Amino acid sequence: MKFFVDTAEVSEIRALAEAGLVDGVTTNPSLIAKSGRKMAEVIAEICGITPGPVSAEVTATDVEGMLAEGRYLREIAPNVAVKVPLTEAGLRTCRALSAEGTLVNVTLCFSPAQALLAAKAGATFISPFVGRLDDIATDGMQLIADIVKIYRNYPHLKTEVLVASIRHPIHLIEAAKLGAEVATLPPAVIRQLLKHPLTDKGLDAFLADWRKTGQSIL
Ligand code: G3P
């Protein structure tokens, strides 16, 4: 499973990349706004930190505008994945840009039907938002299960399931059990994956016993 980091905070991405935990990055207009930086500048910097796909989302809502923005964004760096919303204009843009060899991440997916349409449009990634479905008492992980099952029936579809809107480690574990190719995780959730109280407790006990020996390895 590939771990993408869902943030535009360069310091967070750099720290996680140094730990070998970054296979790519996803941003969206809200995350760019939160960064307080110019979009092209921060995307270029992120693309320099990781060779993996870096999603940069268009903000136009018509095909002509999306195509112009997508063709501009992909020139920032070779690993830019242009992100388009799951609308008719977004799918038309996805079809055109993917035909031009551009990585395309189709976002704001909330149904299996939408995911099937995105794959037929040549999307590189589909981003179903599990957390936002959970937030309205709908089983977000069921959407992932449905998409994975549908895609497996049609091996010619090459779209990778990029599980987004992840709120906690269980979302990640369940997505991995289902075989989703990618999960995009807030930095805090990645750090939560590492932690277990029994690991900390066991290490403390090992080191306490070791100190009693008076030895040192070097
Ligand atoms: O990349 C999509 C992701 O950022 C959405 O997550 O937490 O805003 O639902 P969230």
UniProtKB/TrEMBL annotation:
Any single Pfam family the record assigns to this protein: TAL_FSA
SUPFAM superfamilies in the record: Aldolase
Keyword list, A-Z: Cytoplasm, Pentose shunt, Schiff base, Transferase
Transmembrane segments: none
Pathway assigned in UniProt: Carbohydrate degradation; pentose phosphate pathway; D-glyceraldehyde 3-phosphate and beta-D-fructose 6-phosphate from D-ribose 5-phosphate and D-xylulose 5-phosphate (non-oxidative stage): step 2/3
Top-level EC class as recorded in UniProt: transferase
GO molecular function list: aldehyde-lyase activity; transaldolase activity
Gene Ontology BP terms: carbohydrate metabolic process; ketone catabolic process; pentose-phosphate shunt
Active site: K83
Chief localisation class: cytoplasm
GO cellular component, one term: cytoplasm
PROSITE patterns linked to this entry: TRANSALDOLASE_1
EC number of this enzyme: 2.2.1.2
Known catalytic reactions: D-sedoheptulose 7-phosphate + D-glyceraldehyde 3-phosphate = D-erythrose 4-phosphate + beta-D-fructose 6-phosphate
Subcellular location: Cytoplasm
Family classification: Belongs to the transaldolase family. Type 3B subfamily.
Function: Transaldolase is important for the balance of metabolites in the pentose-phosphate pathway.
Database matches in NCBIfam families: fsa_talC_mipB
Protein name: Probable transaldolase
Organism: Roseicella aquatilis
Gene for this chain: fsa
